[in-house]
Known about the structure:
The protein is an alpha+beta fold. It has helices spanning 3-18, 21-27, 40-50, 63-73, 82-107, 156-159, 164-182, 185-195, 199-215, 218-224, 229-245, 249-279; strands at residues 283-284, 289-293, 300-304, 316-318, 328-336, 342-349. The protein is globular and about 60 Å long.
Amino acid sequence: MTNSHIWSAVTRQAECWAALPLVQEFAKQLPRNASTRTAGVPGYLQALQASGAQIAATPLRLTGLVSGFSELVKSFDVPYDESDLQRWLQMAGQVEISHRETVAWLRSRMPGYPQLPAPQLAPGTPLTTVEFTYRLSWGEQERAQGLQLQDVPSGIARRLGANASQAHDLGEAARALASTLRSSEEWLRLGVARSALGAADREALRDTRARVRERLSPSMIDAHEPRRALPRHDYRCAVLKEELDALTGQAREFADAFDAADELVELAASDVFGQLAIYGFPVNLGRVAEIDLEPGATQYASFTLPGDTWLEPGCLIRIDDSLIADTMLMVGGSFSFGSTSRTRVRVRVLPGTSSVW
């Protein structure tokens, strides 16, 4: 199965979600879709974006960002109606729960699920914490729900207000995406790595999970940083990396394979899916300047935008240049002033998308 099959399946699922009235009503208040960003719910969300919350990058999982950055909005003096904001947040909550449950169901198709001895799933890691995290976290009881026994994600259609035809389409789209993930290089690698684990490898993984759990206990996190969310998150990441780097042999291969398999789900079924479902097809920039390709297995690049073009992190981009034929996901940017101002963006190239979008 090629990457293009995954992107085609993601596109199909995004089209099903985008057709739902609840999703449409939720999406139209997001700043990128709204007619104005200076007042009302769009203005409030734009102030959050300006405060550092990645509202545009993760439109299907932003309720935590709204809560975490809400105090910073006060300094922007944005006029909005609290009752309108609460109604929108209720919609956002329904959309996010549905999205997270769909991702959980997709993860339940992983090789070996629910028996996954990955240290990354120990309590307190960026994937399991109930606090702020940039990652798409696994629910505390997610692997105890028997999701692997469900034919389709249950309850999603009802929560999203889908009619019978739409519910059927949602189920078929989820099954199609799961099928492409099962055939992906990353998931096949995870299956092989799991089968190759010996008794000593499993013991090494158990010991690592135990150390991670101890080092990332609430008391240890508080001792490092009692309050600020970002330093607490960074500490979780640093501790986990240190413990994973100490693994060797098949235990290390399993941990690395799990990372790749889970990151594929997050990238395809959340990051890219969310952009397509909420904002539509990629932005075509035409010609850009000063393209720099970064070395590495995962291809990143940076380039300068034309004129006064401004983009928000998380958006999907296409350019008119044979050097990068595939669609890209914007992951960062910078703006510089001088005799002439310019905007540079950093992107992740999505292999296999040139034939899809």
